[in-house]
Write a structure and sequence with these properties.
Layout (H helix, E strand, L loop, with lengths): L9 E3 L4 E3 L6 H6 L2 H18 L8 E2 L1 H16 L4 E6 L5 H11 L3 E5 L2 E4 L20 E9 L3 H10 L4 E7 L9 E5 L5 E2 H4 L8 E3 L17 H10 L15 E7 L3 H10 L7 E4 L4 H6 L1 H15 L4 E3 L3 H11 L2 E4 L4 E2 L1
Helix pairs in contact: 3-4, 7-8, 10-11
Length: 340
């Protein structure tokens, strides 16, 4: 590109990013040479590649996916292995391990200070139904949710030896040799619901509110502002999605700005930390209500386009498609298990 094609600051289709007030910016680009712009284009492309998920769609695995894949893909592969128990690799390995141990009526263990610890309750093995279990039969199966670098499993093998089974529900195709058993192949990049809300990803993600952190407002509460206000002030959250480890990059919602105080109070009540809360302009209520999906979707897309966030988490698939269409950045649909 010999000359800057943008007539004003904003989103640049050439560099695929917002040209803001900090150089390199729109003013810089106007006066830059062709070589300078080409070098910056290369740098931008490398950055986008690092953040890109290509054309992969189903890379956001939900909690429901994990349960289904345990039952349908993994348990059939271990059911006849003559196991003496299942060891959940801390911490996310507890999820598939407990499902499998319960389903197969096997003792459940974990690892602490390089020792195998029984997760006991009433009996030594975790319940009356384990009282007749023989400790001497079969091998232990170590189970994690994923294996990608292989570092964790190599350390575990070094500690506990090769006379056990080592497994993962999801395994990177190039590392299948690390495990004895796996449920499904899962290449990188990917996002996992059971990790996402307390991962560093939240610091670079804009979030929808209703449908992501709390149920969507019922239609019966939409026809009266008093009922609506009461509902959003008292609705319980999806507790499994409350972020506790990191501050959110921001929340962008179709709620009217007139309900900002009630929204801020609710977010504070559940200790949801965020950099910014962007709410739909109250004076545009008629336009919003006349074509909610398009108007709110475009509003969210505009906020996303201006942001340095690399993900937008949207509860409604139709709005997610609008955001993706107008912004050309990745949209997570957690309720559908899809990344657009």
């Amino acid at each position: 590109m010999k000359h800057c094609q943008c007539s004003n600051p904003g989103y640049c289709e050439y560099f695929k990013q917002e040209m803001t007030s900090n150089p390199p910016n729109w003013q810089w680009c106007q006066g830059a040479s062709e070589e300078e712009r080409n070098q910056y284009k290369i740098a931008c492309d490398k950055k986008h590649k690092r953040h890109s998920f290509g054309n992969i769609e189903s890379v956001f695995l939900t909690n429901s996916n994990l349960l289904d894949d345990c039952i349908k893909s993994f348990i059939p592969k271990i059911a006849n292995l003559n196991l003496s128990g299942i060891v959940g690799v801390p911490r996310s390995g507890f999820l598939p391990a407990s499902i499998c141990a319960t389903s197969l009526n096997l003792p459940f263990y974990t690892i602490s200070n390089k020792e195998i610890i029984i997760c006991n309750s009433i009996s030594d093995f975790g319940g009356y139904r384990m009282n007749s279990f023989s400790k001497g039969c079969g091998k232990l199966l170590f189970l994690d949710d994923t294996v990608f670098s292989g570092n964790t499993f190599n350390q575990i093998k070094d500690t506990f030896g090769s006379h056990h089974y080592y497994s993962a529900l999801y395994c990177k195709p190039s590392n299948l040799n690390i495990v004895d058993v796996y449920g499904k192949e899962l290449d990188e990049p990917h996002l996992l619901e059971w990790h996402f809300f307390n991962s560093p990803h939240t610091k670079k993600t804009l979030f929808d509110l209703d449908g992501v952190f709390s149920p969507n407002v019922p239609f019966s509460e939409l026809d009266c502002d008093d009922k609506y206000e009461k509902y959003i002030s008292n609705v319980e959250p999806f507790y499994n999605r409350l972020p506790k480890a990191h501050k959110l990059r921001g929340i962008v919602t179709g709620r009217l700005d007139k309900f900002r105080k009630q929204t801020e109070d609710w977010l504070a009540k559940y200790n949801i930390q965020y950099d910014e809360l962007i709410m739909f302009p109250t004076e545009k209520r008629k336009e919003r209500d006349a074509n909610h999906v398009e108007e709110v979707g475009k509003y969210k897309a505009d906020a996303y386009k201006r942001s340095d966030a690399i993900f937008f988490m949207e509860s409604e698939k139709a709005e997610g498609k609008v955001i993706r269409k107008y912004c050309h950045k990745r949209v997570i649909l957690p309720n559908d298990g899809v990344l657009l």
